[in-house]
Design goal:
Elements (H helix, E strand, L loop, with lengths): L7 E8 L4 H18 L5 E7 L12 H17 L5 E4 L8 E7 L5 E10 L2 H4 L4 E2 L5 E2 L2 E10 H12 L12 E5 L5 H13 L4 E3 L6 H10 L4 E5 L1 H6 L1 E6 L3 E7 H13 L5
Parallel strand pairs: 2-3, 9-10, 9-11
Antiparallel strand pairs: 1-8, 2-4, 4-5, 5-8, 6-7, 11-12, 12-13
GO biological process, one term: threonyl-tRNA aminoacylation
Protein name: threonine--tRNA ligase
Family: Belongs to the class-II aminoacyl-tRNA synthetase family.
Length: 269
């Protein structure tokens, strides 16, 4: 997956040694929840550690390295998270937990990463005064949740083959008037949905209704709302769901509740 840019949602957390476990668990919770929300439940987890036969490439104290590798391993095992150890995969400044997304054809892509940095705090002369009144060097955690933003979006598009869940779809509903006579009612429905923060468009083209439906299917819009004089008379909409599923006619309020529930529950249709 080749992208034209590489922007990371990188953040750095500065903490004491005794706060290290809690902070790693918080980031891990955040990363797992975020991936789940986007539909990435098939994750490969790696513990990246040192190559013990090539210790000269790493910086930092041996004591801190051993503590970090041991603690990261204990965190994963305590949470019963299946993982593989990537020996030699650690950066020169510290070990890490890496979550890799598996795409639609089985390839793995780096996503959430939690890296311990034992180089920069000392390099920047960072210290804090502990409860003992003495100065101590803090621990720094690098973390990214999505990894490369561009690569994440590319993986997301491939994962869903463009058929996004309702909450992610660029256009969540397409209103299809059966003729120009129903354009006013279509615009009225659009305004109602827009006021409820639904991403909606009206197909105003002078095309046959079936052609409009077919085009909306090609665009992989989750919901198609077909409206005509009959729907206008009863404040209703005829619903078609992506994949050529016909839900029939329902009141506008019923449909609004349905789509809002889909969005709230991050549901696929």
């Amino acid at each position: 997956l080749r992208v034209r840019g590489f922007t990371q949602d990188d953040a750095h957390i500065i903490c004491r040694e005794d706060q290290f476990v809690e902070e790693v668990n918080k980031i891990l919770d955040f990363g797992l929840e975020l991936n789940h929300d986007f539909g990435f439940d098939n994750l490969k987890v790696y513990l990246s550690t040192r190559d013990l036969e090539n210790l000269g490439k790493y910086v930092g104290e041996e004591r801190v390295w051993k503590l970090a590798e041991k603690t990261l391993k204990e965190i994963l095992e305590k949470r019963k998270i299946s993982y593989k150890e990537d020996i030699g995969g650690a950066k020169f400044y510290g070990p890490s937990i890496d979550l890799k997304v598996v795409d639609a054809i089985g390839r793995e892509w780096q996503g959430t990463t939690i890296q311990l940095d034992m180089n920069l705090p000392a390099k920047f002369g960072m210290t804090y005064v502990g409860e003992d009144g003495k100065e101590h060097v803090p621990v720094m955690l690098h973390r990214t949740l999505l990894g490369s933003m561009e690569r994440f979006v590319g993986t997301l598009i491939e994962h869903y083959a463009g058929a996004f869940p309702v909450w992610l779809a660029p256009v969540q509903a397409k209103i299809i008037p059966i003729s120009d006579k129903s354009l006013d009612y279509a615009q009225k429905i659009k305004e109602k949905l827009f006021s409820e923060e639904i991403r909606v468009e009206v197909d105003v083209r002078s095309e046959r209704m079936q052609a409009k439906i077919r085009d909306a299917e090609k665009e992989k819009v989750p919901y198609m709302l077909v409206v005509g004089p009959k729907e206008a008379a009863s404040d209703a909409v005829s619903i078609r769901v992506r994949g050529e599923k016909d839900l029939g006619s329902m009141s506008f309020e019923h449909f609004l509740a349905l789509i809002k529930e889909d969005i709230a529950k991050k549901r696929q249709v």
